[in-house]
Amino acid sequence: MKQLIKTILNKVILVCVFASLFQGCNSDDGVVSCVPNTIVNVSININLPLYSNLNNPGGWVYIEGATAGSRGLIVVRTASGFKAYDRNAPHICPGAETTLYVKNDISIVCDADNSEWILLTGQPTKVANRAPRTYQVYVNANGTLTITN
Questions:
Q1: Is it the case that residue 32 has pLDDT exceeding 90?
Q2: Which element (helix H / strand E) includes 19?
Q3: Which sign does the torsion angle of CA 92, 96, 97, 98 carry?
Q4: Confidence of residue 134 (pLDDT cuts 50, 70, 90)
Q5: CB 33 within 8 A of CB 130
Q6: Most buried residue, 21, 29, 63, 80, by most Cβ within 10 Å?
Q7: Residues 6+ apart with CB under 8 A from 131
Q8: What is the DSSP letter of 36?
Q9: Cβ–Cβ contacts within 10 Å for residue 58, how many?
Q10: Beta partners for 81?
């Protein structure tokens, strides 16, 4: 009886080990993310003149600083709230021309390969197949935005 229990336990353990090995072999669809994982923790007061662009939908600003990612952030006001995008191109590894910028107040652009995204949604429209990395944006009653990862 003890031998039977040992055999069953060994088989259960073996199945669990193989299941965990196969779990780690998921496909990545060939997508490589080179966007650095950096700390993002920024608070801004949109009542200040520096951020007055964020008082209307479609308004945007660049945020720079030690805790604003490795290349800074693009913060945009949408019809329903705010979005914060990392300025690293999400589909290619960082290089001299891979810092994202806003063009004509409607799109986000990467000069390295002319990729474009819709500013208000982050949806790719040209070349890139994925949206820029976004961060959580919290708004308090006093007009302070906290952006964090």
A1: no
A2: helix 2-23
A3: positive
A4: very high
A5: no
A6: 63
A7: 90, 117, 121, 122, 123, 124
A8: -
A9: 14
A10: none
Q: CA–CA separation, 149 vs 146, rounded Å? A: 10
Pick the CATH number of 41-148 from 1.10.1510.10, 3.40.50.720, 2.102.10.10, 2.30.42.10: 2.102.10.10
Say whether 68 sits in a helix, a strand or coil.
Answer: strand
Tokens of 80: 């329903």
From CA 78, how far away is CA 60, in angstroms rounded?
9
* CA–CA distance, 21 with 97 (Å, rounded to integer): 39
Report CA-CA distances (Å) from 40 to 5, 72, 99.
Answer: 52, 9, 17
Residue 110's CB is within 10 A of a number of other CB atoms, namely 25
- The values of phi and psi at residue 112, to 5°, are -60, -40
Query: Per-residue pLDDT tens for 36-56?
Result: 888 999 999 999 999 999 999
Q: How confident is the model at residue 24, as a pLDDT?
A: 44
Q: Which residue has the tokens 């302070």?
A: 144
Q: Is 141 helix (H, G, I), strand (E, B) or coil?
A: coil
DSSP H or E stretch at residue 2: helix 2-23
Note the pLDDT tens digit of each residue in 56-114: 999 999 999 999 988 999 999 999 999 999 999 999 998 889 999 999 999 999 999 99
